[in-house]
């Protein structure tokens, strides 16, 4: 049987190659998704390695430590035996004036004198040497040129001119090494006169072990809130602190790896099912010449395993290209590309490819062994089970009922329980759709043939007959496309709903047209600014808003907001869940739903603080909008000195409302003029706030589209593979049609139309399922303060459907060309 298997492989290289391509593409997507997930960690480790390269020891403060790390301590560290170099590190806020003339925040660091302790590399020009020079991170410097004058602002808004003399690079920030500017120590003191070091990094002298260096430093400067650790330990701590921030992205890629497994499994299963079914006569002949059922069954599985193994190995290496291409497409320009192929990823991807391929070969192989040899040689095995049977119909009905019941339950349940039921409903409905696919495929393709028949003529009718001949194959071919488009339609529609809901939530919460914030976090705006802005012609009101950490006595410290009492209900209108919130007076407190649930607070209760009492007058829900965040508690501005913690940083903003009859554009020009004396103030419209809130959603959606494009590509590869195998299967039939008068162009048009029909069927099912699931999620997740609207993103959905229809002829190009070029005489002689 081994010789028979080897001979069969040599006799059918093209058919096996087509199946191998489908397997390789599927495995490439699986391994590519897993590699992308690992690339997140690789990029993080690279950033940590840059930040700690050359560092043998780190001196920092313990939590709650006393004195700061200053120049005196740095000098003491440099005097310790075994220290070759030591540098103080701190990143200060140094807003710069961009090319539009507005200030934007930037992080600045002092250039280490010791080149080995610099956590960045020179990219162009040179590093600063004089106090009036600076170097800029490459992406930040994209709008500037070397030699250009750059204005930096200090914390009070004073202007300091610098000359751009160089650019530098680093692997990525990932929250690590987020400096935008490098200055000389003297230049840094121009924008931050007395910066305290966040840490002191130390390089050991030659021959000094890090452990010995740490022991010496600990003896000299340790204690009293100062800690000394090795560079390796500091790197490990930095990596562990940053890892949770990348966990969400890792889960994102892992979810797409699961999607890849499902899509790849369906394409591989369909391709190999067709391949084995086409060999029914050959398998029957082996039975006739003495091969037993087990021998035939084992031979098919052995051949499937061999093809799956070779194709899966090729797919793993293809995954490297997939991961690299996605990073290049979705990452910032010039960003490094990581393709960490671990043994675990390679083995997992290969096992998936082999197992799925072997499992795909089991059903047709078992069917072939159960049919009598003489009957199998006379009738193709697959033709006997071409249409959906009763078990499939029963499964579809059960899943549909379960999905509908879960949908009803999700709509009636609370958000948390509703989300679980919504996920179950989506999975059940997807299963029902896949199970009922063969029942829908026939009527759909017949309808498509009838609609396009008057335009395309006989090719459309023949294409509909071919697709309807085996609805199970048609449905299986379209299933991978259905899943891919369902996912992207679901997320696209939900994202559009979240974006629209955020906009409505901001508009409901803020009746002001403008907000003014500081470009420096924690930096207060001038106390006279609200009055200055209120005096601008066309401004109806201007009210200050201050975010701070408040002391609520036994309840603890919470992030809160203070606002002028008469601005509540006019400029600020959060969703009120209980009580009243038309204004706030002295001694009154409004609490968020989260604080109400955590602390058990309700309207009418009194909160005792160190400096008095606050009476709860309302419970609200709000949108966390930049410059207008209400935090967990809301008090009158007069209560701020009594409630705020002594060391609390205050973030201030001003809400500006335009008079009804005023021209908003003229008012904005007047506000810009009034803010000229306050360069650190940033003016935003409500539309700007909505754009800031939705920017992360759009970035995630772009990445999702790039990933899903691969799933859709594999789905179309499955369509092409199915058509190619069916061309080989229908060689005699195609020749007969040619003999009856069908031209080569007509034969190509028939296969192209069949591909389009399959694509339209799969795309329509995917879009309907995705949009329907999105509707359910928006209904379940929407709240009064943060509504999630069911909004159909017509442009993107249209692009999805158009791409599916336009890609179908490309998928059919090679199979159609092969069918049309076939010899009529040889085709008629095909057995």
Descriptive key words:
10-stranded mixed β-sheet, 58% helix, single chain, 4 domains, alpha+beta, 7-stranded mixed β-sheet, 831 residues
Describe it.
This protein has four domains: 1-54 and 237-385, no CATH class; 55-236, no CATH class; 440-508 and 691-831, no CATH class; 524-679, no CATH class. The chain is built from 24 helices and 23 strands. The protein starts with a helix and ends with a helix. The strands form four sheets. Strands 14, 15, 16, 17, 18, 19, 20, 21, 22 and 23 form a ten-stranded mixed sheet that branches. Strands 3, 6, 7, 8, 9, 10 and 11 form a seven-stranded mixed sheet that branches. It has a four-stranded antiparallel sheet with strand order 2-12-1-13. α15 (471-509) packs parallel to α22. Mean pLDDT is 84; it is low at 381-386. The protein is α+β, with helices and mostly antiparallel strands and 831 residues long.
Précis, in short:
With 831 residues, the protein is an alpha+beta fold. Helix content is 58%, strand content 15%. The chain is globular, with a radius of gyration of 34 Å.
Task: Furnish the topology, listing elements before pairings.
Elements: H1 2-11, H2 13-52, E1 57-61, H3 71-78, E2 83-89, E3 92-93, E4 96-97, E5 103-104, E6 107-110, E7 121-125, E8 133-137, E9 149-153, E10 159-169, E11 181-183, H4 185-191, E12 199-204, H5 210-221, E13 226-230, H6 231-278, H7 280-288, H8 293-330, H9 343-370, H10 373-378, H11 381-384, H12 390-412, H13 415-456, H14 458-469, H15 471-509, E14 514-518, H16 529-534, E15 539-551, E16 557-563, E17 575-579, E18 588-592, H17 593-599, E19 606-609, E20 612-621, E21 633-636, H18 640-643, E22 651-658, H19 664-674, E23 681-685, H20 686-729, H21 731-739, H22 744-781, H23 794-821, H24 824-828
Parallel strand pairs: 6-11, 8-10, 16-21, 18-20
Antiparallel strand pairs: 1-12, 1-13, 2-12, 3-6, 4-5, 7-10, 8-11, 9-10, 14-22, 14-23, 15-16, 15-22, 17-20, 18-21, 19-20
Helix pairs in contact: 1-8, 2-6, 2-8, 2-9, 2-20, 6-9, 6-15, 6-20, 8-9, 8-20, 12-13, 13-14, 13-15, 13-22, 14-22, 15-20, 15-22, 20-22, 20-23, 22-23
């Amino acid at each position: 049987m081994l010789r028979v298997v080897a001979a069969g492989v040599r006799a059918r290289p093209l058919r096996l190659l087509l199946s191998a391509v489908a397997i390789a593409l599927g495995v490439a997507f699986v391994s590519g998704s897993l590699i992308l997930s690992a690339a997140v960690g690789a990029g993080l480790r690279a950033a940590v390695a840059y930040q700690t390269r050359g560092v043998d020891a780190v001196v920092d403060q313990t939590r709650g430590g006393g004195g700061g790390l200053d120049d005196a301590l740095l000098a003491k560290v440099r005097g310790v035996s075994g220290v070759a170099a030591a540098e103080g590190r701190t990143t200060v806020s140094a807003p710069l004036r961009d090319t539009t003339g507005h200030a934007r925040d930037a992080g600045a660091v002092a250039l280490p004198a010791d080149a080995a302790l610099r956590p960045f590399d020179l990219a162009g020009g040179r590093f600063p040497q004089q106090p009036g020079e600076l170097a800029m991170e490459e992406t930040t410097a994209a709008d500037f040129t070397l030699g250009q004058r750059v204005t930096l602002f200090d914390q009070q808004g004073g202007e300091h001119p610098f000359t751009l003399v160089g650019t530098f690079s680093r692997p990525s920030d990932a929250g690590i090494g987020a400096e935008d500017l490098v200055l000389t120590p003297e230049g840094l003191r121009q924008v931050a006169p007395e910066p305290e070091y966040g840490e002191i990094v130390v390089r050991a002298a030659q021959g000094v072990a890090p452990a010995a260096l740490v022991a010496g430093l600990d003896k000299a400067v340790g204690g009293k809130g100062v800690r000394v650790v090795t560079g390796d330990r500091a790197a490990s701590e930095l990596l562990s602190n940053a890892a949770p921030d990348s966990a969400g992205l890792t889960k994102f890629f892992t979810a797409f790896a699961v999607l890849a497994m499902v899509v790849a499994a369906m394409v591989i299963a369909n391709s190999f099912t067709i391949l084995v079914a086409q060999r029914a006569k050959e398998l029957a002949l082996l039975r006739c010449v003495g091969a037993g059922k087990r021998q035939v069954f084992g031979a098919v599985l052995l051949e499937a395993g061999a093809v799956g193994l070779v194709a899966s190995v090729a797919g793993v290496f293809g995954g490297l290209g997939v991961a690299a291409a996605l990073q290049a497409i979705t990452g910032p320009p010039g960003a490094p590309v990581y393709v960490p192929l671990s043994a675990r990823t390679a083995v997992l991807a290969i096992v998936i490819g082999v197992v799925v391929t072997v499992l795909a070969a089991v059903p047709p192989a078992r069917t072939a062994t159960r049919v009598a040899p003489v009957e199998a040689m006379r009738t193709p095995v697959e033709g006997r089970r071409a249409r959906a049977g009763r078990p499939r119909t029963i499964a579809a009905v059960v899943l549909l009922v379960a999905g509908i019941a879960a949908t009803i339950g999700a709509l009636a349940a609370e958000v948390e329980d509703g989300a679980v039921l919504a996920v179950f409903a989506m999975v059940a409905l997807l299963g029902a759709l896949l199970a009922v696919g063969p029942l829908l495929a026939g009527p759909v393709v017949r309808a498509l043939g009838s609609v396009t028949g008057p335009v395309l003529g006989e090719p459309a009718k023949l294409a509909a007959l071919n697709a309807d001949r085996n609805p199970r194959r048609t449905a299986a071919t379209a299933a991978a496309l259905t899943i891919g488009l369902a996912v992207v339609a679901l997320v696209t529609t939900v994202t559009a709903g979240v974006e629209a809901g955020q906009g409505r939530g901001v508009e409901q919460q803020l009746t002001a047209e403008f907000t003014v914030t500081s470009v420096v976090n924690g930096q207060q705006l001038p106390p006279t600014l609200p009055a200055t802005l209120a005096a601008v012609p066309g401004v109806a009101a201007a009210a200050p808003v201050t975010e701070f950490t408040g002391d609520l006595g036994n309840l603890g410290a919470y992030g809160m907001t203070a606002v002028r009492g008469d601005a509540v209900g006019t400029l600020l209108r959060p969703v009120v869940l209980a009580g009243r919130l038309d204004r706030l007076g002295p001694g009154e407190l409004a609490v968020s739903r989260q604080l109400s649930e955590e602390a058990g607070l309700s309207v009418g209760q009194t909160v005792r603080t160190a400096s008095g009492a606050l009476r709860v007058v309302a419970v609200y829900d709000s949108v966390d909008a930049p410059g207008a965040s209400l935090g967990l508690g809301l008090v009158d501005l007069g209560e701020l000195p009594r409630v705020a913690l002594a060391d609390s940083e205050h973030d201030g903003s001003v809400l500006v409302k335009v008079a009804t009859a005023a021209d908003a554009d003229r008012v904005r020009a007047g506000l810009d003029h009034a803010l000229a004396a306050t360069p650190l103030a940033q003016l935003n419209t409500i539309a700007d706030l909505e754009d800031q809130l939705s920017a992360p959603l759009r970035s995630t959606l772009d990445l999702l589209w790039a990933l899903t494009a691969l799933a859709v590509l594999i789905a179309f590869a499955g369509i092409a593979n199915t058509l190619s195998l069916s061309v080989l299967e229908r060689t005699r039939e195609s020749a007969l049609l040619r003999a009856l008068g069908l031209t080569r162009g007509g034969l190509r048009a028939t296969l192209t139309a069949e591909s389009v029909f399959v694509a339209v069927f799969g795309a329509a099912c995917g879009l309907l399922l995705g949009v329907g699931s999105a509707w359910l999620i928006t209904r379940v997740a929407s709240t009064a303060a943060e509504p999630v609207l069911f909004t159909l993103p017509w442009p993107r959905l249209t692009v999805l459907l158009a791409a599916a229809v336009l890609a179908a002829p490309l998928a059919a190009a090679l199979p159609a060309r092969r069918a049309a070029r076939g010899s009529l005489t040889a085709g008629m002689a095909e057995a």
